[in-house]
Amino acid sequence: MNTFMNWIRAVVFCVMIAAVMQPVLAQTPTMDKSSAVQVMHFDAAKVNAAFEKGSPLFPGGDDSHYQILTARRDKPGQSELHDKFTDVIYVVEGTATFVTGGEIVNGTTTAVGEIRGESIKGGTTRKLAKGDVIVVPNSTPHQFVEVNPPFLYLVVKVR
Predict the structure, then answer these.
(1) pLDDT tens string 110-154
(2) What angle do CA 159, 71, 119 make, to 5 degrees?
(3) DSSP E strands, 40-132
(4) Cβ-contact 31, 37 below 8 angstroms
(5) Which of 118, 111, 49, 56 is nearest to 83 (CA)?
(6) Cα-based torsion angle of the residue sequence 106, 111, 114, 120 in order, rounded to the nearest 10 degrees
(7) What is the pLDDT of residues 63-84, one digit of tens each?
C-alpha cells in the first residue's frame, strides 16, 4: 500500500510539474481555452503493470507537450540527450548513480532530437534514492552509471 501511495504521489507531483512548466516550455500554443480538459486516471493495476514492463503510462503524441513514463532499470544505461524534452524524474524504489552535464562520448543521433552515447565526460555525479526528484533540462547530457536493482522511477518529459 505504501509503495502504491508513493507511485500515486509521484504521478500527481509530476503531472503538476508538467502543467506548471508546460506554458513556459511549450513551443506552440497549448489547448484553446474553450476546449475540454482530458482527465487521466491510472489505477494501481495499470501503474504496477507499467513498472513491471517499464512502459509508458501516457506516451503523448506529436502535438503533446508532455509524456508520463515508468522506468525499471536493472543495469546502467547509455548516455543520452533530448533536444526538446526536459525530464522530471521521481525515484520510486532503489538507488542509482546519475551523471548530468558534461559531454557525451561517441554520441550518435538515434532519432530527431535524440542522441545516445557510450558515456559522459566531465559531468556531475549524484546518488539518487527513493523519494528523490531531479529535473534534467532539455539538451543536458545524462546517464545512469550505477544501478542497485530494482530501480524504479517515474519520468514526466515536458516539451
Answers:
(1) 999 999 999 999 999 999 999 999 999 999 999 999 999 999 999
(2) 80
(3) 56-58, 66-73, 79-82, 86-100, 103-105, 108-111, 114-117, 119-121, 124-129
(4) yes
(5) 111
(6) -20
(7) 789 999 999 999 999 999 999 9
Are the C-beta atoms of residues 92 and 130 closer than 8 Å to each other? yes
Q: Which CATH architecture has domain 2-26+43-158?
A: Sandwich (2.60)
Q: Are 105 and 119 in contact (CB under 8 A)?
A: yes
Contact status, residue 95 vs residue 146, Cβ threshold 8 Å: no
Enumerate the domain spans of the chain: 2-26+43-158
The dihedral over CA atoms of 94, 68, 70, 115, expressed in degrees to the nearest 10, equals: -90
If one counts every other C-beta atom within 10 angstroms of the C-beta of residue 15, the result is 17
What is d(CA 81, CA 89) in angstroms, rounded to the nearest whole number?
A: 14
Of 52 and 13, which is predicted with more confidence?
A: 52
Whether the full predicted model's pTM is greater than 0.70, yes or no, is yes
46: cell is 495499470
- Distance separating alpha carbons of residues 129 and 15, to the nearest angstrom: 21
Q: What is the DSSP letter of 122?
A: S
CA 115 vs. chain centroid, Å, equals: 16
